[in-house]
Every structure is written in structure tokens, then in C-alpha cells.
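Subject: complex prediction, re-run

Hi both,

The earlier run crashed halfway through, so I resubmitted it with identical inputs.
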Amino acid sequence: MNFLDQFRYTFDNLSELSIAKNQDTETKTSYNNPQLKSLLSTSVKVTPEIFPKVAETIDQVFERLKLKNNFNFFITANHLQTQALCAMMPQSSNAEIIITSKMIDLLNGEELQSVIGHEVSHFYYQHSLYPSPNQARTKTEFLNLLHLSRAAEISADRAGFLGSGSLEYSLRSMLKITSGLGDQHLQFNFSAYLNQLRELTEIKGDQTQLYSTHPTFLNRMQALIWFSMSREYHQFFETNKKGVYDLKTVDQKINESIKKVTGNELDVSNKEIIEKALLWGALWIYLGDKKFSKQEQEKFSKRFGNKTTISILGLLNISNMPIIEKKVMTAYAEASTLLKSDREKITKELREIFQGVDEHSEDSKKNFEKLIKTLN
Ligand SMILES: [Zn+2]
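This time it finished cleanly. Structure:
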């Protein structure tokens, strides 16, 4: 347990995907690590002999974050991109962090520390366990995975800040990276830059950001400033200040602020899938005894509305069971790709619906259980 755990951003939550956390801390040998082979042959490994300043900078980050340095750092010649990335083999207990030459050139030591802390924490938080959005089975799953990816960046930025020990330098590095320019061109007036966020939300955001793996630097900067105002942060680091918000409030504010840029499409589409699953699920449970009784129709109507009930009754008139079952299963196949908290919402309400059926026949129980199983 490291203090980074308590500062992890709420929406950066691996358990949303029911993936087992990697507990295997045993060091695996890297004879067969193609990434390492390629880096050793094409980039320069950071050692105190070759890069004394960078090496010292790295040591300070590990000291601050109270983590063991199991990493190989490499600098790669790339003067076009200001980039750092953490590459690891699955199940590995160590990782490679690659930084471009442009990044090293642009940032001073303190600013670089925030980048190093950020990358190291991607490994610590096991963000590589999140499936790639490109593996998504549905559009909504794709968007949910991107949402998790953006959330992971917020956690990593906090670690970058804590690893550099300075909010100022963390924000500076962000402004440098997003503008691509260094000290000679910039005034570090962060509130002036953040005016741009207001301007962007005033014109209803930029919905293409919904497809981005990273939040905008505007959101990331805002998020970091709010985090630095949290009670938990001040308490943990005994700053003698009280903080303005609790961390939960900060996390909600950040989520809302990102949504103001990306728009609500993801929330809307998650909600639609949940509603659809509940509607077809309720019907399927009620139909367990092959009847849709008057009382059940009333309950159904109360929950899903009169109009929906009428169209369902119409459908039942012209369809047979296999057709209905197909519709139910399609809704549940889609719902099974939702994040865990949303799937739990469906399970909870479905259980209440099941408890309210006229007859707890074996068949309605079987239907109910099959739906729950499909969801998990
Ligand atoms: Zn990152």
C-alpha cells in the first residue's frame, strides 16, 4: 500500500471491468522482451554516466513517491514529439519508460519530474490492464473504455505532481507540452490559459474529445489545481492548510468539467442501454409463467410508461416467444458490455422486479437468473 492509492481518481477504477488485479510481484526475467531489445538497440538508456542530471531527477521522484525503481529509462531521438510513455510486458514487474529528446530539451529537471512521476504511476496503478478501446465490442463499450483511459490520466497527473513535489512545476510542464514551447516564449499565467476552458465550454465543448484517450490539458490542469485544494492532500502532506474541498467533491467536479468538453453522449447512451435492459428484462421475468397478467401490466406501466406498455402488448400479440427472447438477449448482450457499476444497477432493479412477480414459478426464476448471468 502506497499513498498513491488514496489519491487515485475515483473514475479510474479497474474494478469497473471485473479484471483481476495483477498481484504477481515476482520479478520475471526479460530475455524475451522485444520492446527492451528494440530500445537497447535504438535508444540510449539513462545511466548516471551518460545522463547524470536526468538520472538524479529520476531518483528524486522515486524517493518522493516511496517506490522502488524497477524501471529502465530510455531517451529516444525524436525532436518532433514531446512524449513520454510507459511500456511494459503483460504481467511484468518492471517496465520501460521512454522519453523523447524533445521532452528532455523542453523541460527543466523539476518539470521533468512531473512527467516521470506520471509515467511511473501508470505502471503502479496497473493501467495497462485496461483493455484497449480498439478491442471494444460495441460503440458504447468503446466510449466507456476511452472514459476510463482519460480517468487514468487524471490519476497519473496527480502522481506526477506528488513526484515533482510542486504544483507550479507540474502546471508549467503541461503548458510547455501543450504549446510545444519553452521558457523563452512563455509566461506561466495558468489562469489566463484556463480562460480558454471557459471559452470552450461556452461554445458547448468539443465533442471529438469524447474519442480521445487523454483529457484536454485544460481539464488536466484544472483537475490538478482542484486536487491541490483538497483536504486529503493538505492533511497527508501536513501543509498547515485546510483545503477547500474533500477529494470526492474534487473528483465529481473534474468529471463534470471533462463532460462539459466531451458532451453527454456517453451518459445518454449508457442510460439508454440500462433502460432497454430493464424493460426487456422485466418483461422476460413476467413472461416466465407465459402470462403477462393485469397486475404485471400495471407494474410494468408504472415503471416504463403507458405508451411503452401499449406497444409491448401490441408486439406480444403478433410475436411468439422465440422472437421476444431474441430481443431480450440482444438487449442483454449489449448491457453486458457496460461498466460494472451500471451492470450492478440493472441487477439490483431486476431483482426487485423479480420479487414483485405474481408467481415465483421455476420458469420466471430461470429467466431472471439467466439475465443476471448474461450480465456478469
Ligand atoms: Zn499518461
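The chain has 17 helices and four strands.

- K.
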